């Protein structure tokens, strides 16, 4: 019985290199049928072996409600929890020292001061930046914490008192409280007198429109000097701001001064001791004091 002869196999040989091609061609470019390099093949095989070993030793394959745990029993979650526990244990020693130290002792200890400043920075961003700004530069009605003008005093203990008990807090009996009379709405001064004393106050800091007149000076002496001082330098113990510097809580203009005398705006800051622990309050005080304007 005769066999059917096989069709002859014609290899396509690249004329330039003399290498057999795969038969694929794109835009006149032929694909050569070169074998893969040995080093590449062994690397590929090694990766396969390594991957199989990894999936056996470590968590890898997802199941219905969990995953394979691996022969080594490793858990990245457990490793993270251990690392956090170690970090927390290291922190507790410093936190304990801060809790048992006065603010002056914290600032005198380089390690405690450094830790308190860093922790206070974090606490500031979470609790204070919404009003005073991320850079603590403040805004209209919210004091700048970087300058050296402090309504209630800028020592670290003054700052702690303000943070802990707030200003005009309705729930803290130890809150800071200052009140400026409604000279206009309560009829204590007429419009002409308000304009005269406002011009006098504006002249103390060199504001445009300011004018130091005997009449304005007398009205100031009779109604304002008791809190702001004869020279307008303010009194921190009363929460009365300095009127001679160019720093204004709301707006530095003659019209704004007239409006404040006519019917003053009174800001409010909550008592943070109701929300934050003692250590965090100390850390915040140290941080704010170190911003550059602390006394």
TrEMBL record:
Keyword Nucleotidyltransferase attributed: no
Cofactor annotation: heme c
Taxonomic superkingdom: Bacteria
A Pfam family assignment: Cytochrome_CBB3
Domain Cytochrome c positions: 115-205, 211-292
InterPro entries: CcoP_N, CcoP_N_sf, Cyt_c-like_dom, Cyt_c-like_dom_sf, Cyt_c_oxidase_cbb3_su3, Cytochrome_c_Oxidase_Subunit
Binding note for cofactor: Binds 2 heme C groups per subunit.
Transmembrane region(s): 39-61
Keywords: Cell inner membrane, Cell membrane, Electron transport, Heme, Hydrogen ion transport, Ion transport, Iron, Membrane, Metal-binding, Oxidoreductase, Repeat, Respiratory chain, Transmembrane, Transmembrane helix, Transport
Protein's cellular compartments: Cell inner membrane
Pathway: Energy metabolism; oxidative phosphorylation
Assembly notes: Component of the cbb3-type cytochrome c oxidase.
Main function: C-type cytochrome. Part of the cbb3-type cytochrome c oxidase complex.
NCBIfam families, per the entry: ccoP
Homology family: Belongs to the CcoP / FixP family.
Protein name: Cbb3-type cytochrome c oxidase subunit
